[in-house]
Design goal:
By secondary structure, the chain is mainly beta. It has one domain (about 10-265): Jelly Rolls. It has helices at about 10-20, 240-245, and strands spanning about 25, 45, 55-60, 70, 75-80, 80-85, 100-110, 120-130, 135-145, 150-155, 160-170, 180-185, 195-200, 205-210, 210-215, 230-235, 255-265.
Length: about 270
């Protein structure tokens, strides 16, 4: 999520939720994941359904740079494929900013404590197909707040032949440092499924496309995220048109990214 004001001040989000009359809730569906135990162990989710032991879906939630509200209906499981959608103009505009678009998001649930920052060093792999449409962002990422630390794989719907990689490496009280890079893929990420991976270790972060390392970040101590994070995926409309472009005006109004599976390998197991 390449945006400098995410959760900028928690009061901003609270104001959006209260003024709009919308509340933040969690969709829970009973299911099972045979090889899942805890974040420290290897696991793979084939997205046959929503595994509530691993994932949570937010309802009526947003943040400052998101021009859409998270809706549970925008997260769908069909025939072993997860679809996450951004839909233009399907909501009543909110009072705070007039936002009428909806989006979808999947975050890991808290395991050890209520923070939810349970995932750390290891390799995170996804097989996915990006959404199209100017203004639309498709993502696979690790994230925490306070301090803001994050590792991103992102696709902009205005040009899905490029991949956007980013890392945020902040200490407490500083949320301004990021190190983005844009790389050509040599194909259209919205045309078919491909695998993308984040390898996060103490001394480096490497990104992989279809098993090939395309970028490695190695910096002095303190410049690589070192605290536990959420694992997440979302599709949303960013307010920064300089980055994502103006929101699309053509049909269809629903733009979807598709996720085939996600797999996690603990550090030292690959």
């Amino acid at each position: 999520m390449n945006f400098k004001s995410i959760f900028t001040v928690s009061f901003t989000i609270l104001a959006v939720l209260l003024i709009s009359g919308r509340s933040n809730s969690l969709t829970s569906v009973s299911s099972s994941l045979a090889d899942f135990s805890y974040p420290e162990n290897h696991w793979k989710d084939n997205f046959d359904n929503l595994n509530a032991e691993l994932w949570r879906v937010y309802e009526n939630f947003t943040w400052e740079n998101n021009n859409s509200y998270m809706q549970s209906d925008n997260v769908e499981f069909k025939k072993g494929i997860l679809g996450i959608s951004m839909i233009k103009g399907n909501l009543k505009p909110d009072f705070f900013r007039g936002r009428s678009n909806s989006c979808g998001s999947l975050f890991t649930v808290p395991f050890k404590d209520n923070s939810g920052y349970d995932f750390k060093y290891g390799k995170y792999v996804v097989r996915m197909k990006a959404a199209t449409g100017s203004g639309v962002v498709s993502s696979f990422f690790l994230f925490r707040w306070d301090p803001w630390q994050e590792v991103d794989v992102e696709f902009l719907g205005k040009d899905t032949t490029k991949i956007h990689l980013n890392v945020f490496f902040n200490e407490e009280g500083n949320n301004a440092n990021e190190d983005p890079i844009i790389l050509p893929l040599g194909y259209d990420a919205a045309a078919d499924f491909h695998t993308y991976a984040i390898e996060w270790e103490k001394d480096h972060i490497s990104w992989y496309v279809d098993g090939k390392c395309v970028w490695t970040k190695t910096t002095p101590a303190g410049k690589i995220p070192y605290k536990g994070m959420y694992l997440a995926m979302n599709v949303w409309n960013c307010t920064s048109s300089d980055w994502v472009g103006p929101l699309f005006t053509d049909e269809p109004k629903k733009r979807t990214a598709y996720y085939d599976w996600v797999e996690y390998f603990p550090s030292g197991s690959y």
